Amino acid sequence: YESIAPLNWKYSNFHVTVNFNVDAEAHIEAFREAIESMVTSEVLWGWLRQYDGGEQLEFDEANKPLVDRVRLRAAFEHGGNQNHGLHAHIVVEVAHTTMVQINKSALVTHFANVVGLAPNIHCRFLKGNGEDKDFILFYITKEIPNYRP
């Protein structure tokens, strides 16, 4: 998703892990489709929320231009240390001028509807000025041995 409003953008990054706790190999195409469709307009505004410091609010048409860009970088992993089955790591990058959060229950619903399995979703905000995000990107591409913070 990209808007065209010229503003001074802030950037927030999130690391989302999606795991179905089953051998989801048979569902890989639906899993991939669920990830790719996360940034389509009808899905994006379901899980990306404006945050007012106390609660998550839905973006309405007037507030959607406060989000300039949402980019996903995802990788599938099978047989990790904690999640032994097929799972995905997704780095969500949001350029915005308002506070944003991820509505985890909306992502659970989205993945359950598209894949047909109930997912376990872990989501965390990536703190720091790029270094934490860079580490996660190295992690999901398995380039950690070359990473030097």
Description:
Helices cover 26% and strands 32% of the residues. It is α+β, with helices and mostly antiparallel strands and 149 residues long. The chain has a four-stranded antiparallel sheet with strand order 4-5-1-7, with helices on both faces. It has a three-stranded antiparallel sheet with strand order 3-2-6. A hairpin with a 7-residue loop joins strand 4 (67-78) and strand 5. The longest helix has 12 residues, at 104-115. It is globular and about 45 Å long. The two termini are 31 Å apart. The mean pLDDT is 84.
The biggest beta sheet reads:
4 strands, antiparallel
Per DSSP, what share of the residues sits in E-state strands of 2 or more residues?
25-35%
> Poorly predicted ranges (pLDDT <50, ≥5 residues)?
none
What overall geometry do the principal axes of the alpha carbons give? Answer: globular
Please estimate the helix content. Answer: 25-40%
End-to-end distance, in Å? Answer: 31 Å
Q: Structural class per helix/strand content?
A: alpha+beta
Beta strands, count: 7
Number of H/I helices: 4
Order of strands side by side in the largest beta sheet?
Answer: 4-5-1-7
Determine the mean pLDDT.
84
Element string (H = helix, E = strand): EHHEEEEEHEH
Essential attributes:
single chain, 149 residues, alpha+beta, 4-stranded antiparallel sheet, 3-stranded antiparallel sheet, 4 helices
